[in-house]
Amino acid sequence: MKPSFFGLTNAPQAVRISFLTVGIWWAVFTVPLMVMVREPRRVSAGILSMAAQGLSQLRKTLREVRRLRTVGLFLLAYWLYIDGVGTIIVMAVDYGLSLGFEQKDLILALLLVQFTGFPCAIAFGRLSGFMGTKPSILIGLGMYLFVTLWGAFIGSRQEFYVMALLIGTVQGGVQALSRSFYARIIPEGSSAEFFGFYNMIGKFATIVGPLLVGATVLLARASGAGANLAPRISISSIAVLFLAGGALLLFVDEQKGMREKTFLEQ
């Protein structure tokens, strides 16, 4: 935003330098992992052999998920609401541009999310200690639901900044507490494979949300909505994911899940 302050000629050059600084950041924080973390010696195997082992492990995990009904229900709820979370992350900039905000406004909003997210993720952890993990996740989803509905009516940069702050308060908390809740209902001796499955589901998220947004825009424009109104209508469609995911999460019984995993471990 201020390239001349750093002795740079223009904004494109500043963007190039920012990529370099990110690379340096990764390099510096990779050093502790390389130096301090030791792993057992790996047994060499071919690519086909490793792929076959991976598929075999996936089938085994799927069989266990079918036996752990609470885990399966939670994963379905998680897939829905994390799709909504991912959609907001991916499409926030495009939504701001569609409302006519400038690039500097969007950069500031993204920074607000990041700087708010770190302390609020810690605060959500404290909140879960008082209220429980599932109620805390539901509070976060309620905030996301409010943001998606209110976002359809914002008209100023200041409101966009407030919306960014609200997202920052719950974004890290929902993600961290979801992992924490999941960890308590899966077999302890199989945490690696179950979290691998969990992460795979996360990678398959952010699919339904963009489709909802795109379809809603097309339908709104086909019905005569203007270029400015259609995006506003479309952002509210993401609320469906938070409603569906939150509703399923209400039926996830943590105590039942812990009993199921204990039975499987035995």
Please state the overall shape, judged from the principal axes of the Cα atoms. Answer: globular
> Main β-sheet, in a few words?
none
Nearest-angstrom radius of gyration?
A: 22 Å
Characterize the quaternary organization of these chains.
Answer: single chain
The share of residues in extended strands comes to under 5%
Mind telling me which CATH architecture of the largest domain this is?
Up-down Bundle
Describe the structure concisely:
This protein has 266 residues and is mainly α.
Account of the protein in words:
This protein is mainly alpha-helical. The protein has 2 domains: 3-36; 68-265, Growth Hormone, Chain: A, CATH 1.20.1250. It has 11 helices and no strands. The protein has helices at residues 11-36, 47-67, 69-98, 103-131, 133-150, 157-185, 191-203, 208-222, 229-236, 239-250, 254-265. α3 (69-98) packs antiparallel against α6 and α4 (103-131) packs parallel to α6. The relative contact order is 0.14. The mean pLDDT is 86.
Which short descriptors sum up this protein?
266 residues, 2 domains, mainly alpha, Growth Hormone, Chain: A
